[in-house]
Write the structure tokens for this entry.
Amino acid sequence: MWKFLVRRLLLGLMIIICGAFITYAVIRCLPQSYMEKMARQFAASTQGRIKWQDMLKILNEQYGMDGSILSGYINWFKEAIQFNFGDSWMFMKPVTKVFSEVIWWSVLMNVITLIVEVLISIPLGILAARKQYKPTDYAVTVFALACISLPSFYIGTVFKYVFAVRNQILPLYGLWGRYYNDLGTWGKIGDIAKHLVLPVATLALLSMGSLTRFTRTNMLEVLNADYIRTARAKGLPEKVVINKHAFRNTLVPLVTVFAGLLPSFFGGAMITEQVFQIPGIGFNSYQAMLQGDIPFAMFYTTFLMVLTQVSLILSDIMYAVVDPRVRVN
């Protein structure tokens, strides 16, 4: 086990280093850099007394952008291994401070989404497996395929039109209303909860399809196993056969799905947060990347890569916990 973990950690470290370099190179190759934008704005404010090319040269030297991509990445990596990620160019404050201010809104939204998704998708998948090739199975399959096929911006836009614009039942966007500061504690909680209904519903629908199909497929495989037929032959009630014997064995493949959710918890839902203007990590990261904010973009992408590697290792460990027959050699 220890040798396996060491190998996986070393492999994960190499993937993170290479992935961070690719991210840095892509941002440096953008048509217009953040420095160029600032140089043009400064030159315009001086009414042409200072050329933007001269100001760009000064800014590049100040922020270490005057060298090659490789040298710039090496300088960033030297600081990163000391947990010094610098200041965000766009937000004008330390990257870690910006991250800590916005991450918890994304975590809250994704945790609620996961609860809703599990409570709906797994029972639907089990129901579809039990009613295989019947109208219920077809209805669940169509619902799951629709959830998989429809993009998040389309679902979010439809929800906004139906529930916010047309009927004005729920807020159109944002995380709190105009009179949020005048409300009491429970009033503030209710206001935030009301604003989270549509984003959570959008994210839940996006995830329900794959989890429902995954649960149905694995449930069908388990229901055809010999020990399930033996349990039924013994006269056990169908609920006991499904909930105690069959469902427990479907947890083994589901472990991979749940372990892979760790990056999404802290990665935010970039498109959904944009549609509903939720000030989470996905929304702010998107804005920072558009502006070419290298310190924030590098921290965000590297953080996600680290979480991805951790989730993959956890999934292997959880396999052995859920199913004692699985062992890593």
In short: The chain has a mean pLDDT of 83.
